[in-house]
Every structure is written in C-alpha cells, then in structure tokens.
Amino acid sequence: MSAVKILTKAAFQSQSGAEYEETAMQLFPITSGRIQPNYNTVDNEATNGTAFKDVPRLGNIDITGTLSFQVDTVAFFKLLNVFFGSADSDKYKYGTNAKKFSFVFSDGVKVYKYANVYPKSLKITSSAGNKVTGDLEVVASSNESRTTDIFPEVTDYGDFFLHSDMSGDGFFRVGDQDNALTLADNLYIEEFSLELTSGFDSQFANQRLSLTPIYAMTAIEVSGSFKVSRYDADTFLNWRDNGTKLQLIAKYVYGNENLVIKIPNFIIQAELEDEDIIKQNITLLIGRNGYGTSYLNSNMEFISPIEFSKESE
Amino acid sequence: MSDVKTLHKAAFALESDKPAAWGSGANTVIGQKMFPFLEFSPQKTINHEQNNSIYSDGFKETPRVVTNYLEASFSHYQWFKGPLKDIAFWAFGYELPPVPVVVITADLTTEPQQGAVYENTAGDSFVFLRKEEYRDETLYVFVSEEKGLPGSTLTRVSGTGDAEITVLTSSSVMYEHLFELDKDSRHACPYKELQKPLAVIYITASLTDVPEEGDVYQDENGSKFVYAGTNGSKYRFIWETGNPIIEGDLSRVSGEGDETIIPLTEDSYKYEVGLDFQDLDTRDKCRRATLHFGTEVSDQRLRNCVCKRFTLHSEASKFWEVTNEFLGYDCEKGTYFSSGDSFPDATLDASNIIAHHQTQVLLGPKNSEVSVGITSLDVGVEIPLEVGQDTLSSVYLKEPVFNGKYNISFNAILSRYSSDVFQGYRDNWTDLIGVVRAKEGFFSAGYYFNALKEAEASLDDSEVTKQNLNLIPYYDSANNLDAYFPSNYFPQQMKSPVLYMVRDSDPRYTMIERF
C-alpha cells in the first residue's frame, strides 16, 4: 500500500530513559512534516588516473525534522513540558531542561520510531481568521527504527485554538511595566507570532550520529512580533522612541483549557504599514526579567523571558 | 526585417578528427545537419579592463576588451532517430564501434544464455545479447555480424536456450551505439592506450606460413593492410592506406608469412578498438563542434565549441529534454544557411521524440534491478573545464582542458512511497546499478549507470507521499553492466560511471565518420 498523507499519524511522549518509550503516547495534531535522517556523503577526492570520482563514503547522519501542527488544548501543553523541561502548576518556562521526546510516525507503510528527540526551536503563529499553528523543529541523537509494529495506544489531542479565541474572556494586552495589565490594555491585533529556541542542537564528533544535546549548548532566544489592526494613537511609536520597557499577556480561551502566554520584559521596534488602513507592525525585543529573585517587572514574578500556562476552568 | 524566434535555425556539425589548431577548423558545411531546438541563445563572454589612472578629472575612459569567448547553451528534445548522436558523442567524448543487431519478439520457454549462437535457414549467425522486458512487450536482442535477418525460425547452434525460436516480429538490421564519458581528456588530442578505432577486415584463406603480427601486405590496387592475428577461423588485417577493401590477392610487403595470400572470403571492414598498431591511423580525439545559428538578421557560425555540461530532464506527461552548455572560441556573422540545408527526415515527425511514458527506469542491486514508477528524473554531467587565457591565446580562451573530475548526478522522484527498500539501500550503502531507457518499437535510447550509491531516500509531504531518490554514480572498474553490454561486443575503454546507448538503423560510427 502506498503512503497517503491523510492516513498518516504521529504521537509523542516525554522519554525518561535512554531508549524509545511508548507507554504514555499523546497523539500529535500534526499537519505536515516528519523526522527523517539526512545522510551526508563525503567525496573521494584522491586522484586515480581518471576523471571519474571513486565511491564516496557515508558521513554524518543528521536526524532532523520540522513538524507543523495545530496548537490545541491537550497535546500542546505536553509538548511544552518537554520543550521547557518542567511544568510548575501548569506553568511552562525556561529553566534547566533534561527532557526529550520519543516520537512515533505511521504512514501506512512502516511505523517509524524515534528515540532521544530533542526540541530545537518552536514557532507559534496566530493570524486573523485562522487557527493557531506551531512548527516544532527537532534534532535526534538516535537513528530511526522502521518497524511493522502496531501504532501504540494514544491519548487523543484536543480542539485547536483560533486567533479569535483572544476575545470574550480571552484578550491580547500590551502595556508598560508600571502596573499589571488590565482591560484598558486590550488590543486588536491581526497577527501574532513567537519564535523560541530550546537551547538544544546537534553536535557531531567522532561518530556518525549527533552527540546527546546538552541544555544551553546554544543561546536561548525568544523573539516575536504582532500587527496592530489600526494606527489610531502614537502609543507604540512613543514606546519605540523612548525604549520603554513593556509587558504582554495573550490569553486564548476555548473549552475548559485556556492558553496564556506572558512576556514580562521587552522593548519594541514599530513601523507603520503602507496600506489603505494603516496598521502597525511591532517587533518584540525580548529579554529576561531580572536575575535570581530580583524582577525587573514585578507584575510577573519569573525570570524566564516567556511563560506559557494552562488555565483550566 | 525584425527577428522572430520561430523562424530561427540551428545546425550542429562535429569538427574534423584530424583537428586543426585551436581557433580554426570550423566545419562550414551545413547540409542535413540542421536540428530542431527548444532554446538556443548564443552568448559571448566579453570582459573589459578599465583604465583606472588618475587624470585629474572625474571621467572614465571607455574600457578595453580583454576577454572574448563563447559561453552559451542550447536545448532540444531527445529523439529515437536522427543525427543527435553527434551531439551525444560531443557530450560524452567517446564512442565504441556500433554493434549490428536484430531485435525480435518471440514466445520462449527457455531464455537463451548470453552468447548462445543461433542460425537462420540461410546459415547466418545470430548471437544472443540480452532480453529487454518492458511494460508492453519483451524484446530479444541478437548480434548479427553478418547483417542478416532472422527470418521466421532460428535454430540454436551452441549455448543454452530453446532449440528453435519462432520469430513473431523482427526488426531490420539495427546498430547499438554505446557512448562513454572520456576518462582521459576533453581537448583534441591523440587516443590513449588502445582506444583508437582501427578499420579491420576479416578474411578466410589457406595459408602455409601464417604471417606474424605486424607483417604488411598490399592488394592489387596498392592499398596496404597490416596482419593482426586471428579471430576464430578468420585472419584479421588492419587497413593502413588506400581503400579499406581488399581487391584481388594480397602481396607481402614485409615480414615472413606467405608471399601471396588469396582471400577465400572477405568481410566488409568494420571498426574495432582495443587493438595494438594504434599508430596506423592518423585520427585524434576531437570533441569540438561548429554550431550554426540563423536568425532573420544574420547567421552566426560558432566554432570550436566544447561541451561543459549536459542534462536530461524527463517528467510525467512531457518529452525528454536535453540541455547542453558549452564554451567556444569565437563566432562570425554572415550568410551561412542556404535553401538546400535541411533537417533529417526523422526529426520532422514528432512521433520520434522520446516521451516520459515511453521510459523505463530500473534500479537495484546488480541482477536484482526492478522497474520502478518515476514521476520525474534528472541526469546531469558536469565537465569541469579550465577557462583561461595566456600570452598565446590573445583575448580568446586557451583550448579548455580538464579542470577537475566529472560531477555526475542522477535524481528521481518515486511516484508512490510504498516500501522502505530504498531507505534500506541508503542505510546499508548498497551497490546498485541503474537504467533509464526508452523504446519505440525496436528503437531504443537510454542511460546506463555502472555503479550507484543512494545518498537520499527522503519522503515528501504531498498528499500521496513521494520519495526523493538522490543516486550517486561513481567509478567502478568492474563491468557491472555485463548483462547489458558484454565486453566481447562492447569493449569499454573508459569504464565510465554512466553510459549512453542508442539503438537505431544508422550504421555510421559517429566518433569518426562525419556526415
């Protein structure tokens, strides 16, 4: 049977040991992408008296993938648990991370199992009229296992969030750090996106597969942007000019599990768009919120440049 | 009159295999060498050097021309028939002598062994070469040295296979032309080792004192022939001067064999490679060509063009497209085309164009290769050539020579991923062979890969998952394609990672016989 995309499925879990685990798999609301090994070849450059190259050799095997998915009310929080390394009362933020994934894919031809899969980056995109989507980039330090095994038992994913879930009880708020954000800080935005790196990356030494990634082996960076639907005040331009330190809360409300994103400390770039209705493109330049227990923005008492949380009703 | 693309003309002519000095020796005869092209845009690379001296004003002088050469490309469909084998030789660089074959269809119980000999009712011999299994039919290819036709029945004389073969359909006498990439050179130069084709005549005779190899004889017209041993029951003579036909008796000129040899039978001359006496012929390897390009304004003659890259692209619902990139010495403008110049008849019929649906792709370990469904494929050969000037070349290029090793690529998209066999080939670094060939009736053209490794077998994200195959051809001196081209008929001189074979009705040995 040929592989048909609509019949494929994927699942993951937080792996605690050194081998693939599938005892607590979560169905992943994947829309495209898969993890695949990229085999690098190394040319034979020695001269052999002819103009033909001799047989090359296989070099490093870089196991990577970018998985696009719908941000939902169930699977996304389990993903965040591994991405950030911990969940503290359903709050996910940067700290020491020793977690990794086991992933499994089924495409109707084979069941592909991947162990020791580390998140490399996460991108969240939210735009008017659309669902909230994510792109998870991963690297792995173990090669794929192609089997004819049965796809494991999984927990189903939840409903996906929409951009419009930031309304009603949901909201998008940006303001200075003088006081906690309130209703008065609500904004109408057309687009919102975030990019986060995990601190993990592949690294090659004297073996074909990557060494086991170590947390913070690459710089942790958080960046983002949003587009304010209308330009009707100079607020953002003034914040830009003055380098005013700001804070942000985005709350998506749907069903019983709400997604809240908090960014405690950033300044902005702002520019006006040249369209019939003038909009404002805001780029977030995000930093940590102090050091230790000394918070630059005391309205959000955590150092991490970003925090995701699940609020249940 | 303004120029219009649809009224353009192009012609391709190989330059002489007794090449003139670089910069000269254009083949000015067009005749039937016109060919239908898709894209052709003669371009020159002209570099300038600026006078950067300071003259206390802010103005620059006009720069001077310091480099002037051709660097352009043309593309065309690939055809089952026609003279595009000249372009194939120009691109690959070397061709083995054509092998005369007949192709039949038959219902067989036991497939003949390669090398099994059959005879028709007239006693002509046919040596089994290979079976070709296609989607719609199976063909059996026999070597026909005597250029006979099989008739209705073939009877086995030696080897294994059905004792009698009832021929259902048969081709006329056809020729298999096998092209190899030249491993030694791309510029005009002498043949190396045993590569030079020599005209050979086989005779039978009753001899008392058999000559020694190297003994020289001449016929009644004064044409000279050098004795070069035996092949079975026949004596081999290499033609040296005069006409390559033995007229009357042979008289000894040197050596100690029979003074007079009376040929009892004489085969027509043919070309062979792999023989000693390479100095007998004055040819050189010449991969230069003259291209003519005609517009509504003027014609251009592009001389000393050498191929630096060629590619094949084929995809579902399309024709085979070949693109050739080249360097050249210079071009002149004038009136070169005349009303008498024409296309070969075969290129006037679109049914002779090779289409993707006529293509078969075989991949797998040797003797286990299987036909696979491919939606798109690309074969490419880059010929690294030095682009340089010196004090002898003036503003033009020196004759380009090798500047590195060939880069040969073969990529294909498997239409449906339904098995992880190709991932297995990648993981295990399995030795593979590959064939990309097309047929129309008994005509065939194809690329044959002697040794492949699979570097990539990734799955794409389309609704019906496809698989991207990135195959790496490499040099392997073993003849992994002996089931297709046994060395006794195809004595490959280069062990090229990729071969190109055309089977058609044209006996002309493209590498040395100009038309």
Helix and strand layout, with pairings?
The complex is a heterodimer of chains A (313) and B (515).
Chain A: E1 9-15, E2 25-27, E3 30-32, E4 36-44, E5 54-70, H1 75-84, E6 91-93, E7 100-106, E8 111-127, E9 133-140, E10 145-147, E11 154-155, E12 171-176, E13 189-197, E14 222-228, H2 235-242, E15 246-252, E16 257-272, E17 280-286, E18 307-312
Parallel strand pairs in A: 2-11
Antiparallel strand pairs in A: 1-2, 1-7, 3-5, 4-5, 5-9, 6-18, 7-8, 8-9, 8-10, 8-13, 12-15, 13-14, 14-17, 15-16, 16-17, 16-18
Chain B: E1 9-14, E2 39-40, E3 44-49, E4 64-77, H1 85-92, E5 93-95, E6 99-105, E7 117-119, E8 125-133, E9 138-143, E10 153-158, E11 164-166, E12 169-170, E13 174-181, E14 198-204, E15 216-218, E16 224-231, E17 234-241, E18 250-254, E19 260-261, E20 265-266, E21 270-272, E22 289-294, E23 299-315, E24 321-328, E25 330-334, E26 359-364, E27 370-372, E28 374-382, E29 407-414, H2 421-428, E30 432-440, E31 443-459, E32 467-473, E33 498-504
Antiparallel strand pairs in B: 1-22, 2-4, 3-4, 4-24, 5-13, 6-9, 6-12, 6-13, 7-8, 7-10, 8-9, 10-11, 13-33, 14-17, 14-20, 14-21, 15-16, 15-18, 16-17, 18-19, 22-23, 23-24, 23-25, 23-28, 26-27, 26-30, 28-29, 29-32, 30-31, 31-32, 31-33
